[in-house]
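re: ur msg from earlier - yeah i can do the manganese (II) ion complex, just paste it... oh wait u already did. ok heres what im feeding in:
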Amino acid sequence: MTNNFPDFITLLSQVNSILISGHINPDGDCTGTALACKQLFESIGKEVTVYSRDSYPYNFDFIKGYDAVSHELPQQDADLYIVVDAGAPHRVGDELLEHLQKTSSPIVLFDHHEISEQTQDFPYTLRYIDENAPATSVLIFRLAQEMGVEITTDFSVAVYAALLSDTGGFRYSKTTAESFRIAAELVDAGVSPWDVSSSMHNRIPLNAKRCTAEVMTDLQMRSDGKIGVIEIKIEQIERYGISPDLIDGIVNEVRSIDGVELAARFREEKSGVYKVSLRSIGRIDANAIALRFGGGGHKNAAGFTFEGSYDAGVAIIEEMFREQNK
Ligand code: 5GP
Ligand code: MN
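and the outut:
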């Protein structure tokens, strides 16, 4: 792992076209970071395309560049590929991954996930990974400072929205004094904390709240109330007519219950296939559990895709929780 921005800045000076990608099922950090990169590299005259297999979350539409995201890979090879916030190479989606495996252009990673084997093995030209960073956007903020460019309000909004999102509103464990210092610099650069947080948080469709309430009713508690598990069925999402990402945050509601140390949300993607999100408290390692299923993430927030029955998945998670509690 290298942590040397001058190498990247030199590389940047040698290219014209850049393709930026975050990860599939994009979250606020990946959205804000990719759009911050776009603004940063365009400000020095580069031709930038932001690619995402899936749509960016609707409540980040206030970030500059949101509407310019391409969901199709351009035909032409870019001079440089930048991957942000993807804890494993395959998280960019199959199509881009295949392309990255073939291209001779440099590929650079900016990330803050716990370094996975797949990330280690992938032939990135440069890797900037700070596992302690509260959000990937912070790396791009540091880069912009090192490049000596003007820190604009639009750029600061993108960085701030990502930071606010990935720290759960400056609450999660990677929130440090530096996180607040960076936030203060972003506010100095013109960010309105209320405007950003209101745009992100106060626009939940009524049906998403109703669906959340229904799903919550069937919450199951395991291991003497230390584990909370919840299943969301395709039928429920369809009946309420909502986009699945609108209900994914329910896993945080489950973790917030008194006594819960591990929360697991199983969302059915198709019959027998679940997207699972884990949230933990303190020493319970959600990432270790996700790794067992081929996923990954952070110690207290991780995810994976599971093929099998809900009951079978829950049983394995409960067993791994008990192992960690020994
Ligand atoms: P979420 O539960 O919000 O989808 O994700 C929590 C964290 O785990 C995020 O940092 C996310 O990037 C990571 N994550 C979620 N699903 C997967 C997955 O299937 N594979 C890997 N490697 N990481 C994941
Ligand atoms: Mn992130």
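cool cool. The chain has 14 helices and eleven strands. ping me if u need the other ligands too
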